[in-house]
Write a structure and sequence with these properties.
Elements lengths: L10 H56 L3 H12 L4 E8 L4 E6 L8 H8 L5 E7 L2 E10 L2 H53 L12 H36 L9 H18 L3 E8 L2 H8 L1 H18 L5 E6 L2 E6 L5 H14 L4 E2 L5 E2 L3 E8 L6 H19 L9
Antiparallel strand pairs: 1-2, 1-4, 3-4, 5-7, 5-10, 6-7, 8-9
Helix pairs in contact: 1-2, 1-4, 3-4, 4-5, 7-8
Bound molecules: guanosine-5'-triphosphate.
The site of guanosine-5'-triphosphate has 16 residues, from strand 5, helix 7 and helix 8.
């Protein structure tokens, strides 16, 4: 059976409509057939009944006809037919003349029964009146069709009840089917939507009662697990790449581009929040000599050691970076002002007093020159601040070059 469907019909609506139609059609068909069979059987029964009644009247009317007593015949008809499903009765004498008539008057069905009886071809019930085997008259009875009307009313009421009950059962059945078929599909759609819109791959389709749908859900879940695994692997690889892209490979500190990115963000934030930040620019003193005298590996060891010491001196929120070569930078945010930044610079100088021992046992005296720039006092943008700090560092280095030895052998 094909059902007309609009593209927006839900599965629930389709199942419910199909159930209702099937139940309605089945019950209507069965009901109409039963009514037809019932009418045929009832017609036979009523006809038989009418004949029996006519025969019994024929026995009773025998005396009235023989003694030509019409009053007695009329009384007898009234007595015997009142309350029966008979509309009219006629008693004929032996010449075929009407001897007496009887009518029930206003019928309970208002005439509809008689029309119905005529429609289904209900014939009158007849019986001969005999005396000593010789016919002396005839009794004819016409049905008032009340039996048919009662049967039809009861039949239609039962049919309506059956349609109602089957409709209700159909709805219940469709609800159960909805739970078994539509709900797993809805869950599948919900999870697919969550994956598509929110990229949330940790949701799974619950188990379904129907084997095929359960298998579909399992396959979908397996696919999701695979996708989730790949997604997590990609995320891990991305974060490793991101980390690599923002780190200096020698010291493990932030590199220049990451430092500049963080500095830009911090400047925006400090500007909005009315806070201060400081940039410390650091350059190793006479670093070239380390490389020249002890080799590049010793120079690397010194750079790593300086990086570690710088990192250990600042707060978690601050950022230490190697800008390249023997240059480092520190972002202090938030900071109280120039004095706080100077305190950090002093701590750096203090930390550099401790010599560095390389893997090959070479003892190196680290020394760095530090320049300070504070936002907003020395500049409001990154370039100005870095230039200022660089200039300050250069001046500090000039002062240092006077006497400090960078290498102690
Ligand atoms: N070992 C090592 N050396 C590096 C690295 N990157 C740059 N250098 C060297 O570091 C030296 C930096 O020297 P400069 O800053 O120009 O000079 P300096 O000797 O520190 O002199 P001042 O800064 O004036 O005190 C150069 O010789 C570079 O070749 C590195 O990753 N490892």
């Amino acid at each position: 059976m094909s059902l007309p469907m609009s593209s927006n019909d839900s599965l629930h609506a389709v199942i419910r409509r199909a159930h209702l139609r099937m139940a309605g059609m089945a019950i209507s068909l069965a009901g109409v057939l039963l009514l037809l069979v019932g009418v045929v059987v009832l017609r036979l029964y009523l006809l038989n009944n009418l004949h029996l009644m006519a025969r019994s009247l024929a026995y009773t009317a025998e005396a009235s006809l023989v003694f030509n007593d019409r009053d007695e015949a009329a009384r007898m008809l009234e007595q015997m037919l009142r309350g029966e499903d008979v509309a009219r009765a006629q008693v004929f004498d032996e010449r075929g003349q009407v001897f007496v008539r009887w009518s029930s008057g206003q019928s309970a069905t208002g005439g509809a029964g008689e029309v119905l009886a005529a429609v289904i071809g209900m014939q009158p019930g007849e019986a001969e009146v005999r005396q000593n085997g010789k016919p002396v008259g005839r009794v004819v009875l016409y049905s008032d069709g009340a039996g048919f009307v009662r049967f039809l009313c009861a039949g239609l009421a039962v049919l309506a009840l059956c349609v109602g009950i089957s409709g209700y059962l159909g709805m219940r059945q469709s609800r159960r089917m909805l739970a078994d078929i539509a709900e797993p599909l809805q869950q599948l759609a919900r999870v697919a939507r969550a994956v598509r819109h929110d990229r949330s791959m940790d949701q799974r389709v619950p188990a379904a009662r129907i084997a095929e749908l359960n298998e579909l859900g399992d396959d979908f879940n397996a696919l999701l697990s695979e996708l989730q695994m790949r997604h997590e692997r990609l995320q891990q690889q991305n974060s490793v790449l991101e980390l690599k892209a923002s780190r200096d490979s020698l010291t493990g500190l932030a590199n220049r581009s990451h430092f500049e990115q963080r500095l830009r963000q911090a400047l925006l934030d400090a500007d909005q929040a009315g806070r201060k930040l400081a940039v410390l620019f650091l350059d190793n003193d006479r670093f070239k000599q380390v490389n020249d005298v002890y080799g590049h590996a010793a120079g690397d060891a010194l750079l790593r050691a300086v990086g570690e010491r710088l990192h250990s001196l600042v707060r978690e929120a601050d950022l230490v970076a190697r800008l390249g070569g023997d240059e480092f930078a520190i972002l202090l945010y938030p900071v109280g002002g120039v004095d706080d930044a100077r305190l950090v610079a002093d701590k750096i100088e203090e930390a550099m007093r401790e010599p560095v021992v390389t893997g090959t046992g070479v003892l190196l005296n680290p020394s760095v020159s530090v320049g300070i720039a504070v936002f907003p006092r020395h500049g409001r943008d990154m370039e100005t601040l870095l230039n200022h700090a660089d200039q300050a560092m250069y001046e500090a280095k000039l002062a240092r070059h006077a006497g400090h030895a960078a290498i102690r052998g």
